[in-house]
């Protein structure tokens, strides 16, 4: 892939940690993590252990460019926020997103949290949990897949948040996933415009380029 057409924001020569089995058979792909430093970890399902010898046997390093040549599905994650993971669903050819839990390094976690809080410019906390309709936590690799956008922002009476996408029919039950607020806002920046909503308020819009309207509360 040429530098002119490079789809990711990370340097194509930056090193990534990758399961050795994926170099032999990319179909073993299970999940990826983009850590808080913007570094990629690409796995066949195995995670790091405390045994460094096992880690050396299980994982190696590749330039990101080579990893993308090997696993072109990574390009669909060009907009993935740092601090997120994406599980690969081979049947649906889609990535299923989640916010990464804390690491085993408590001191490092405290520093990362402090930096995220300091950089946050919106109401509330970037670490707050947000419920999103399931399709908002997915990224399809199908170019014909409908664009993802938030149709409704609900601030529940208890102060919790719910984001609903346009693919969800009105007045029907739907599945939800949990993301951290910062990740939800990075994926769907328009949501930031209504983060001042009070408990009990609901904002809606007719289309992805329409303004938000207060419809309840």
From TrEMBL:
Record's protein name: Uncharacterized protein
Top-level division of the source organism's lineage: Bacteria
Organism: Amycolatopsis orientalis (Nocardia orientalis)
